[in-house]
C-alpha cells in the first residue's frame, strides 16, 4: 500500500464533466492539486474489462503512465435489478455511441417494462495508479429505486430516474452536496481519503 501525500498532484483520469465537478468539490479540502485528463490532453482508453475495478484500472494506469503522476480513475454504473444488473459496466454506452443519456434512460425504462421490481444501485470503483504500474482500488455503492418519468435538472447521467433509499427526491432534484453525502462516488472517495492519503 502506498500513500499519497496531502500536497501532491493527482491526475483525474475522467472525461465526464459531471464526475469531475463532483470530484473537485469532494477533494477541495484535501490539499491535493487536481489536474484533469482533459486539461493534460490525455487520450481516452477503451474500457474493455467486464468489471468496474478492471475498467477503473485501465483508465488510471493509462493516465499515470502518460503523465508521470499518480492518477485516479472512476469507473461507475447503474445496476438495475429487473435487468439482471444492466446497464452496469455498459452504462455510458447504453444510449448509443454518442453517450445520449436521455436515450439511455428511456432504454432502461423500456426494458424494465411492467416489472414491479424497481430496485437499483449505483457503483463507483476508484483506482489510484502510480506511474510504475502499481494500483489500489476502493468501491462505493448507493442503493435505491428507479422512478419514471425522470425528474430534476441537477447531477448527470441516470440521476433523474434514481431515488436513493430514505429519500423522496431523485439525485437530480438534490443540491450536489446532498448527493455527494450519500452517493456511490462520495462513499468511495471517503474510503479513498481515509485509506490512501498520508496522515
Ligand atoms: O470513463 P470516464 O471518462 O470517467 O467517463 P464516462 O462517462 O465514460 O464514465 P464511465 O465509463 O465510468 O461510465 C459510467 C456511466 O454511468 C453513469 N453514472 C456514473 N455515475 C453516475 C452518477 O453519479 N449519476 C448518474 N449516472 C452516473 C453515467 O452515465 C456514466 O457515463
Ligand atoms: Mg468511460
From TrEMBL:
CDD domains: HAM1. Gene3D superfamilies: 3.90.950.10. One of its GO terms (cellular component) is cytosol. GO terms for biological process: nucleotide metabolic process; purine nucleoside triphosphate catabolic process. GO terms for molecular function: dITP diphosphatase activity; ITP diphosphatase activity; metal ion binding; nucleotide binding; ribonucleoside triphosphate phosphatase activity; XTP diphosphatase activity. Its cofactor is Mg(2+). The active site is at 75 (proton acceptor). Homodimer. The keyword Plastid does not apply. Pyrophosphatase that catalyzes the hydrolysis of nucleoside triphosphates to their monophosphate derivatives, with a high preference for the non-canonical purine nucleotides XTP (xanthosine triphosphate), dITP (deoxyinosine triphosphate) and ITP. Seems to function as a house-cleaning enzyme that removes non-canonical purine nucleotides from the nucleotide pool, thus preventing their incorporation into DNA/RNA and avoiding chromosomal lesions. Binds 1 Mg(2+) ion per subunit. This is dITP/XTP pyrophosphatase. The keyword ATP-binding does not apply. It comes from Gluconobacter morbifer G707. Belongs to the HAM1 NTPase family. InterPro entries: dITP/XTP_pyrophosphatase, ITPase-like_fam, RdgB/HAM1.
Amino acid at each position: 500500500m502506498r500513500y499519497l501525500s496531502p500536497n501532491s498532484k493527482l491526475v483525474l483520469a475522467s472525461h465526464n464533466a459531471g464526475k469531475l465537478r463532483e470530484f473537485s468539490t469532494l477533494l477541495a479540502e484535501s490539499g491535493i492539486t487536481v489536474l484533469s485528463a482533459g486539461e493534460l490532453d490525455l487520450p481516452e482508453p477503451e474500457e474493455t474489462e467486464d468489471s468496474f475495478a478492471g475498467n477503473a484500472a485501465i483508465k488510471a494506469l493509462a493516465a499515470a503512465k502518460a503523465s508521470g503522476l499518480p492518477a485516479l480513475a472512476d469507473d461507475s454504473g447503474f445496476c438495475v435489478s429487473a435487468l439482471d444488473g444492466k446497464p452496469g459496466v455498459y452504462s455510458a454506452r447504453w444510449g448509443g455511441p454518442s453517450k445520449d443519456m436521455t436515450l439511455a434512460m428511456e432504454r432502461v425504462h423500456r426494458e424494465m417494462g411492467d416489472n414491479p421490481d424497481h430496485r437499483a444501485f449505483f457503483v463507483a470503483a476508484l483506482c489510484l495508479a502510480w506511474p510504475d504500474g502499481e494500483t489500489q482500488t476502493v468501491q462505493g455503492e448507493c442503493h435505491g429505486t428507479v422512478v419514471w418519468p425522470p425528474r430534476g435538472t441537477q447531477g448527470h447521467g441516470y440521476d433523474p430516474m434514481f431515488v436513493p433509499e430514505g429519500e423522496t427526491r431523485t439525485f437530480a432534484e438534490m443540491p450536489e452536496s446532498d448527493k455527494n453525502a450519500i452517493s456511490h462516488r462520495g462513499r468511495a472517495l471517503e474510503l479513498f481519503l481515509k485509506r490512501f492519503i498520508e496522515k
